[in-house]
Every structure is written in structure tokens, then in C-alpha cells.
Design goal:
Largest sheet: 13 strands, mixed
Mean pLDDT: 80
Structural class: alpha+beta
CATH topology of the domain at 413-558: 60s Ribosomal Protein L30, Chain: A
CATH architecture of the domain at 413-558: 2-Layer Sandwich
CATH superfamily of the domain at 413-558: OmpA-like domain
Number of helices: 17
């Protein structure tokens, strides 16, 4: 849209005609320039907002009222009415149709330098880019909200969320004046800032179900919680990090590995003494997270197969309590978060002969069976407020670094180290091959390429990407560009679970790989090769629903 303003009045008809012709000519020049600058999917653009902010991004979607870009800080949805100028990189910048009036008001935010074309940024660069991340109500002059409210479970509300809020504020040069703790909540008051950064941040302590209820009711603006069962379809969901539950035992216990099915029998009380499975006579003492915690829901779904823990099980609500129980009872076995159980002796899980240690490489690709997503939930009403900007922060390099500092696994993509890949290949080859030629094709791939820590997962009989998969498509495209890797070196390998005919599963695996390839091609990153292995090379047992879920995947490799 082109807007024009008249400064002053004209009484002379010839002058009015001349002015009209001048404006018409300017309009034609502007339209011609805009016609040459229409972006396409996948093109890189430089965008200048009405407030003077300038930054670079790759076009992900073209909508009537919005332009959706992928930037080094995550996905950014820009209302078109806020865009003063857009330049497709590689073409000359359009000349302004009229000079800027000398009395134009100064911009409301600091004019930053262009965002660097890479996934990492220094503190100075991130601060310089802060106004590009301000919500549209700031750039458009509307009064922004002065309050931002979160809800999170206790293990996040008292340490993780306050630290994330502080780091987020520092990107804008804003600092907290004071923090005050109250029963079941924390409040922070921040100094006033030209960007309209919220002056009050409130963090409510609530379990996941209660937190999502508060979000739907408009009592809070965002929820940070661990995944638990079915995901709410009426809310906007962003996977921002990963955690993992690990199995730990008393140091004297000689057990080194447990099948997930055996672990379930232990927790259900079907195995009461360690002497039934190893050469170690001691009564089993079960220690698990309290039933109100998200970790308990994960255990019920993936270990207990919907059952319940045996009577006499000890419920704990803090890592310290779990450690006290583990070290105090020789027959103890407990489950807790990987980040909070450093130093204990962990038991490796086994899936149909496939060893699955809780390594960062396995957790990040969600091939470890007790990995758990950390989700940020927002209302899906398109308000474009500070909570949306906070989401961009969490999905960017600063947010990922913060998650790593709190012993959570970030979503940053990386290549497998040589030893990591060797161990992973050895583990997945523990299953018996069905078709030798398909197994040989996988071995050839492993010799000439490195696996990436990004796996795309699918529902049963489906080739449709889930929420994390859609965001991982953009994350993968940006990583390739940042690393200077040509898309032609990218290999996508599709897989399926073992239900159904072998040939049909092979075809479904190919369709899944093609779905990821189509999503990448739509943003200008066409992969170089598509492979399908069907139900071969499983990463988990197909004997339960979650094992089959792990096997329905598309892997990304780089030659």
C-alpha cells in the first residue's frame, strides 16, 4: 500500500495540475519498483519497518496481510502495513518516490544494524537488533501492554522462567528493579524503556493442566511446561528445548541395562527383588516423581503402558529427595530428570536389542525413549504481543544458550561426531535385517554422510509434519545456510513402523521423506537425495505405541 500526504494547499489550477502529474508519475514509479520487488517463497529480503528498523530474513509464507520470514532469531510474522520498504536481495534498492519531510518525527525505537546472516550473534549484535523484535503495536504507535504473565510448574517457575525473563529483558537494555516472591507466584518490576517493554512480569506456579486453563482464560500470556500426553489443538505450541528422564540405581547395584518392558514390570510391582533379574539380592524400592508432575504422566504412558505404580512406591517432588532415597537404600531404583541427577549411576535402556543411553545426540533427535519436550504455549489469537517476541527469543540462539545453562538440551542442529555416529549405527544394527539390500544401502549412507540431530516424526499412516517438524524445517534451512552447506549435499531418509506390508511401508517412508523435501523446497532449500528404508533400521521396539512413534521418522544426513 502506498500512502501520500499533502503539505499545504494550492489555489492555482496549473500548479494543481502540475502537482497532480508529479504525484501520478511518482505513483507509477513506485508501482513499477514494487512490481520488481515482489518477494517469492524462499527469497532473501531486506525489510525496513515504519519505525526505521531494518533486518534480513528468508520468506517462508506470503499472506494477504502478513509476510512471514525466517530469521536467525526464529520465525517472524510482519503485518504488511508496518513495512515501509522491502528489497529482494540481489536487486537494486527502489528509489523513494518523494523526499522525507524535514519535520518527520524521530523513530520510537533505536535504529539497529541489519541482522547478521548467521544463527549466532554477539551481545552487541543482538542488542542492535532489539527493535526488529518488538511487537507490531510498538512500531504502529499503539499503547503496548505493561504486564506480561507466565504460568509454569514449580521446577520451572522458581529458577528457569525468571532467568529467561531477565535474559530477554537484557536484549532490550532493560533490567529488573526488584523481584518479589509471594505464595505460588513471583513478580518482577522492570524499569521503563522506549520500546514499551512490560514494566511488570508475573510468574504463576501451576501444574500443566492448571496453567493451560489460565492461558485459555486470558489470565496469563504464556505457559512453559513439559509435554504430557495429548497436545492441545486450540493453542499455539512451540518446542523450545528437550529434557530426558533417566533410570538411576544405588551405586552397589550391578545392573547395567534394562529393557523398557522390564522397567515397567519393576514399577508395577511384578518384580519385587533384584535377584530375579541380576546377581544381586536386595528388595526393590521404587522412587518416582509425584503423580501431579508431568514426569509421572510420561512414565505412565511410556513405561507403565497406562498402568499404575505398585503400592509402597515412594513419590518425590525434588531432585534432592530422589538422591537421598537412591543413596540411602541399596535396592533403590528411581527416575528423574537428566539435568538434576548428575553423578549417579545411570542404567542404559534397551529396546529389542537396541541400546539407548541418554546421550545428548540421542535426546536431541528424540531417539531416546524417555526424552521429553519442553513446550511454550501461547493463545492462537494473533495478538502479536510481547509473548510472541519472547517465543522468538526462546527459539533463537540466546534462548537455546539459556536452556543449555539450565541442563536442558537445546534444539540446535549439529552433525554427529565420528564416534557418536559409530556407536549409534552399531546400536540400530542390533535388529535382524529383513532385506539385505536395504540394510546395505543404509551402511553405504552411514559411510558417506553424517547424521544430523534432527529427526522429523509422523503420526500413524501419515506423511503430515507435526509442529516441531514444521519448525525444524526452517531450523534446518537456516543451519545449512549458516554452515555454508549446499542443499545438494542434504540427504533425507524415510522410515516406517513394522505394521502393514513391507512394500507399503517402504512407499510410506518415501512419501514422508518427500513431504520434508517439499517443505524445504518451498523455502528455497531443495535436498539433493531422498532415500527410503521402510521398517528396516528401527530405533525402538514396535511392540508399543511409543516405540512405533519413534520408528516413524525422516532423518537428515549431510554428505
Amino acid at each position: 500500500m502506498i500512502t501520500m500526504s499533502y503539505y499545504g494547499t494550492h489555489s492555482s489550477a496549473p500548479r494543481f495540475l502540475l502537482t497532480g502529474l508529479t504525484l501520478l508519475l511518482g505513483l507509477l514509479v513506485a508501482v513499477a519498483a514494487l512490481a520488481q520487488e515482489q518477494p517469492r517463497l524462499g527469497s532473501r529480503v531486506v525489510v525496513e519497518l515504519q519505525d526505521g528498523a531494518r533486518f534480513r530474513g528468508k520468506v517462508r509464507a506470503l499472506e494477504d496481510e502478513r509476510l512471514v520470514l525466517e530469521t536467525p532469531y526464529g520465525r517472524l510474522s510482519l503485518p504488511r502495513r508496518l513495512i515501509r520498504r522491502l528489497v529482494v536481495e540481489g536487486t537494486p534498492a527502489p528509489a523513494p518516490t518523494t523526499p522525507e519531510p524535514a519535520t518527520a518525527p524521530p523513530p520510537t525505537t533505536t535504529r539497529p544494524q541489519p541482522v547478521p546472516e548467521r544463527a549466532e550473534a554477539t551481545d552487541a549484535e543482538a542488542t542492535a537488533a532489539r527493535s526488529t523484535l518488538a511487537p507490531s503495536q510498538v512500531a504502529s504507535g499503539r499503547r503496548p501492554t505493561r504486564r506480561l504473565a507466565f504460568a509454569a510448574p514449580p521446577d520451572f517457575a522458581y529458577a528457569l522462567v525468571p532467568d529467561l525473563v531477565e535474559r530477554f529483558a537484557r536484549l532490550y537494555g532493560v533490567r529488573a528493579v526488584e523481584w518479589s516472591a509471594e505464595p505460588r507466584r513471583q513478580r518482577a518490576r522492570f524499569e521503563e524503556h522506549p520500546t514499551g517493554f512490560p514494566q511488570e512480569v508475573e510468574i504463576l506456579v501451576a501444574d500443566r493442566a492448571r496453567a493451560l486453563t489460565l492461558l485459555r482464560a486470558g489470565r496469563v500470556d504464556a505457559v512453559l511446561a513439559r509435554e504430557s500426553g495429548e497436545e492441545p489443538e486450540d493453542l499455539e505450541e512451540h518446542v523450545v528445548a528437550l529434557d530426558a528422564l533417566v533410570v538411576a540405581v544405588h551405586p552397589d547395584n550391578p545392573v547395567r541395562r534394562l529393557a523398557r518392558a522390564t522397567l515397567g514390570r519393576i514399577l508395577r510391582g511384578e518384580i519385587e527383588d533384584w535377584g530375579e533379574i541380576v546377581r544381586y539380592r536386595a528388595p526393590i524400592r521404587r522412587i518416582v516423581p509425584g503423580p501431579e508432575l508431568e514426569a509421572a504422566q510420561l512414565i505412565r504412558q511410556r513405561v507403565l503402558a497406562g498402568g499404575e505404580v505398585a503400592p509402597g512406591t515412594v513419590f518425590v517432588r525434588s531432585p534432592d529427595d530422589l538422591l537421598d532415597e537412591l543413596y540411602g537404600t541399596p535396592g533403590a531404583i528411581g527416575l528423574g530428570s537428566l539435568g538434576s541427577l548428575g553423578g549417579v549411576r545411570m542404567v542404559v535402556l534397551a529396546e529389542c536389542g537396541i541400546l539407548q543411553p541418554p546421550t545428548p545426540f540421542r535426546i536431541r533427535s528424540e531417539n531416546y525413549p524417555l526424552s521429553q519436550r519442553i513446550d511454550l504455549y501461547l493463545r492462537a489469537d494473533g495478538r502479536d504481543g510481547w509473548e510472541d517476541v519472547f517465543a522468538l527469543f526462546l527459539l533463537g540462539p540466546r534462548g537455546e544458550a539459556a536452556m543449555a545453562d539450565h541442563q536442558l538440551e537445546p534444539l540446535t542442529i549439529r552433525r554427529a561426531e565420528r564416534e557418536e555416529q559409530r556407536r549409534w549405527v552399531d546400536a540400530v544394527l542390533g535388529t535382524r535385517p529383513q532385506v539385505a539390500a536395504v540394510r546395505q544401502q543404509f551402511l553405504e549412507l552411514a559411510r558417506r554422510a553424517r547424521k544430523l540431530t534432527v529427526d522429523f516424526r509422523f503420526e500413524t499412516a501419515s506423511a503430515e509434519l507435526d509442529e516441531r517438524a514444521r519448525e525444524d524445517v526452517a531450523r534446518l534451512a537456516l543451519w545449512l545456510e549458516h554452515e555454508g552447506i549446499a542443499p545438494a549435499r542434504l540427504v533425507l531418509a524415510g522410515y516406517a513402523d513394522s505394521r502393514g506390508p513391507y512394500g507399503a511401508n517402504l512407499e510410506l517412508a518415501r512419501r514422508r521423506a518427500e513431504a520434508v523435501a517439499a517443505a524445504l523446497t518451498a523455502i528455497g532449500v531443495p535436498p539433493g537425495e531422498i532415500l527410503a528404508f521402510g521398517e528396516e533400521i528401527a530405533v525402538a521396539c514396535d511392540t508399543d505405541a511409543y516405540g512405533r512413534h519413534l520408528n516413524r521418522r525422516v532423518e537428515a544426513w549431510v554428505r
